[in-house]
Amino acid sequence: MNNLSTGLTFKRGLQLKNRLVVAPMTTKMSFFDGVITNDEIDYYALRTGEVGAFITAAANVHEEGKGWDGELGVYDDRFIPGLSKLAAAIKKNHTKAILQIFHAGRMTDSKVLHGLQPVAPSAVAAERPDAQIPRELTEEEIWGILESFKKATERAIKAGFDGVEIHGANTYLIQQFFSPHSNRRTDDWGGSLEKRVRFINELVDGVTEVVDQSGVKDFVVGYRFSPEEYEEPGIRLSDTLFLVDLLSKKPLDYLHLSVNNYRNHSVSDGFKEKPIIEYIKETIKDRLPLIGVGDVRNGVDAKEILATADLVAVGRAMLIDPHWAQKVLDGQDHLIRTELSHYDQEDLRISNGVWGFLEGMMPERLK
Ligand SMILES: Cc1cc2nc3c(=O)[nH]c(=O)nc-3n(C[C@H](O)[C@H](O)[C@H](O)COP(=O)(O)O)c2cc1C
């Protein structure tokens, strides 16, 4: 079993002081144009220093990839000064700073995009209320987006981050290329499983090449994915295991499973014997470290997840208690804060957007 306080060294040399990671969480605190605010810096500073690594909120690599207001931007060099402040704020007491990079694809709307129609692999709307029909990307635009992920990686290096995490999860553009629901293309970017994985292949190769050719030391590249979709057609766990095997052969530093609860079982027949995370770990076969996540509330949960995964990411519990990590490392689970009142919002530096979302997502006992 991986002990919580044991360090970990990634392939590219970066060392983590322990196995705890802050999960990427949108803050909805950036300025309207994607520049980081001082309040947002305070939000990160409050929660850093105890964990091994801190993965930032998703930052959009392309202007047309903005998913919501208050989102962090990394699509232009003008973001580098603010991102440098963010990296410096996170890198306290040897905590490593990882920038999550993404493009929302069809999971946005023309209001957020100031009149522009969202773009996606195909002109198919997401199955959610009021979803807009996106515009199908041209081949040239696809190459342009791949390029923007590379540029974002260069900016992360310049800003002093310790790594980037490619956000291939949670139904955004990268996942949209892999999904048979959102990708109905009949060219080389869609159709068979092998063609639907092409975007991810090009993307991972492009980003890892940028890092390896830049000469930067100890800078990691991770990849986050969601295991399955409920839509018909949609990504099934067997598709994801194919993807995980492919990614395990790439020069990546880690894989990061995105699920709401680490105990989740698959909805696919044939994969119901054990939690999804165990199928993922078996497929990776120790080629890369795996980050597990989902409803980790205390040290007992963290240790349980580490029986399978190599690292544990914690989201909501770190919003409620910024010193969750130290309490868990010290074996002081009973001191973890589990309740919120409306008076806490300012002290915890949580924006209105996330506060409402958090209340909606919280188990009854935490409300
Ligand atoms: C407020 C909030 C914002 C989130 N934003 C992101 C995000 O930007 N990128 C991402 O990959 N996941 C995001 N997530 C998902 C978390 O990374 C995590 O997978 C999920 O919350 C489950 O972990 P938890 O139970 O420890 O919170 C977000 C979750 C929350 C609660």
TrEMBL record:
Residues 8-331 form the NADH:flavin oxidoreductase/NADH oxidase N-terminal domain. Keywords: Flavoprotein, Oxidoreductase. GO terms for molecular function: FMN binding; oxidoreductase activity. InterPro entries: Aldolase_TIM (IPR013785), NADH_flavin_oxidoreductase (IPR051799), OxRdtase_FMN_N (IPR001155). The keyword Zinc does not apply. This is NADH:flavin oxidoreductase/NADH oxidase N-terminal domain-containing protein.
